[in-house]
Write a structure and sequence with these properties.
single chain; about 200 residues; alpha/beta; Rossmann fold; 8-stranded mixed beta sheet; two-stranded antiparallel sheet; 10 strands; about 30% helix; globular
């Protein structure tokens, strides 16, 4: 896909496409050593009017929202993201709600926790689905195992998980990556989502 606009810094890459009068905003996952470091910056910072959010995932997003809002104007938009991009998609939804222009929907894949209960309640007003890959009793470790740790310091899910079951594809380069890390690969998320009957965001 050729994007109409790309907003990019060392901390995020947000791709925008206008389709049938609706802007699609895609938040990309971790793509550098710096972003890996930021991923583990789980210090919770306060966003006035929203609540507590992950400092590492929120880097640059207030400014990114101002840039994005200038591009999309009053038109409706949808938000989607994978991994780090899923968390940033969630937090950007929060910034957009505060600005009075929330997305129509939020679809995230392999989403790490990024909000406290106050922020989750506000962001959860947007119809959303948070997908987690699952196969042979294992679940995407970025979604489950990391979440088990972050929940101990006040992080919560915005929405319950929607599971996508199925084996990894033969081309999955994460097959030998740590424990069940292969379940985090985005192309397999896409394949599983397209094979499943389309769930409705709520």
């Amino acid at each position: 896909m050729t994007w109409d606009h790309v907003l990019e810094t060392e901390s995020y890459r947000i791709c925008l496409k206008l389709i049938n009068g609706v802007w699609r905003a895609n938040f990309e996952g971790t793509d550098s050593t710096l972003q890996w470091i930021e991923d583990f910056d789980a210090i919770m910072e306060e966003v006035p009017g929203l609540g507590g959010v992950s400092q590492g995932f929120n880097i640059g997003l207030p400014d990114a929202w101002r840039q994005m809002a200038a591009i999309i104007g009053p038109l409706p938009w949808t938000a989607e993201g994978h991994s780090r991009g899923a968390a940033q998609c969630t937090l950007m939804t929060g910034h957009a709600i505060l600005a009075g222009h929330p997305p129509r929907s939020r679809y995230v894949f392999g989403e790490p926790l990024s909000t406290d209960a106050r922020a989750a309640k506000i962001i959860g007003t947007v119809p959303s689905l948070s997908f987690c890959r699952r196969w042979q009793g294992a679940e995407d470790p970025i979604v489950r195992k990391v979440a088990d740790v972050l929940s101990l310091v006040g992080y919560v899910r915005v929405k319950p998980l929607t599971y996508l079951d199925g084996p990894p594809s033969p081309g999955n380069p994460w097959l030998d990556y740590l424990d069940s890390g292969f379940l985090h690969w985005m192309p397999d998320y896409e394949q599983a989502a397209s094979a499943a009957s389309a769930p409705v965001a709520s």
